[in-house]
Amino acid sequence: MPPWVRLLLLLCVVGCSGTTKVVRLDTGQGTPIVHTPSRAEPIDWDEDELKAAVTEHVRKVRPVAHPLEHARQLLGVPERSGWFRYEGRSRRLISSEAGSLQNLRLLPADEELNRHYLLWCERTWGPGDCLRLLVDTPVLDGDGKYALAMAIAHGAVLGGMKEEFGRVVSPTAVVATLVGTLTMYAVLLALPEPVSKGVAALMTLGAVAYLGWDTVWRLVDGWLVMMEEVDRATTFREIQASGERLGEVMGTRAARAFVMLATVALGSTTAGMASKLPTLPGAGQAALVAEAQLGIRYTTPALAQVESVALNTSGVSISLAPNAMAMALRPPDAAGPIAHAKSPGFKAFKSMRDFKKEMGSAGAGKNWHHVVEQTQGNLNRFGPEALHNTENVIAIEGEIHVKISAFYSSKQKITGGMVVREWLRTKSYEEQREFGLTTLRRFGVIP
Description:
By secondary structure, the chain is α+β, with helices and mostly antiparallel strands. The protein has two domains: 3-323, no CATH class; 352-442, no CATH class. The chain is built from 19 helices and nine strands. The chain has helices at residues 3-18, 47-58, 67-75, 108-124, 142-153, 155-159, 162-168, 171-189, 198-211, 213-232, 236-266, 270-276, 283-294, 300-303, 352-359, 376-382, 398-408, 420-424, 429-442, and strands spanning 22-26, 33-35, 84-87, 92-95, 195-197, 306-312, 315-320, 366-370, 393-397. Helix 5 (142-153) packs across helix 11 (236-266) and helix 9 (198-211) crosses helix 13. It is elongated and about 90 Å long. The N and C termini lie far apart (66 Å). This is Lipoprotein.
């Protein structure tokens, strides 16, 4: 890898770890919204949850003959290299077509690397070219070596799911396809000023939501180091050692996250992936991280509006479709939306104290109830007047108010096992209001 590429990425990682990163949300209309990420703990889930999610989505993964090329096209990674032959008469390099290298004489080092790679396949996944890295090429090329190191780095997670893969597809075929995708995604983010689009952009947002920005930046640096080491490697043992070091840098949690995201990406269009991300294990917690660190809503409508994600030394720029500003969170000091028609006599207040001073008591045996709850998060996102107004605060029977409060503090199937109140934090004002009205109907407050 050229030294200037390594330098750029190193500056990017160091710069982002030592200064405040920002997120820019841009629709191409007016000044972008600038969001300063707040601290958020990365989420975790157990191995059973991962296996269940991967097993569900792996059914849609179609094994391909050329996994790296397939992944390159899926993720939009630019072509960087190819096979060439030297033509003595013209004294120039001529690009060689795939399949035209059958009689190329291999150097002893190449033969030895191939032999050890095939032995590794036999021990790990079965006889033959298990990662399909020798299709139409006599030796492991640059990307093929990266893929081998990536497979070794993810070996524990992938190996732990061999049985699940075997239930629905050929384990070797699906692993080759997954490793190709993981490799090309790493190559994409290791490019200077990387820009990901479509499925790759959603993989990036998903990675941040599950792992947090600090971990993602650290992994980019880890990928960069691995590629530099593999570029210098001449033996299988050197590639294996680099892959093992990368596995230690990633850790089990990050490896699980990327295997899951790659599996979903392989079986999805961009729109399909936008609809699947909010349904994956831990998505409720991921939504909280996405809100804190990216300033966006981790919902299908919001994710479907993402056109590209660009990493740079100051942070990240997320380009949204035109007119998609509603999909981004408002700055904390912005007035919140009132997403319904205001009735005659509508009044809004800066605090609940001011509301009660103006409106008085809720009545005998009754309590004031907020349709969209007055949590601190909602106050920060939407502003007090969006919550303390005559459309959002209604008087209901005290006994029913207690039952509704208990419901909001419970865990429900619809929330994926999260407490209802915490689950609602990830939703837009309009979604929270609709849920609140549905709850009032459920408890017989309104028809």
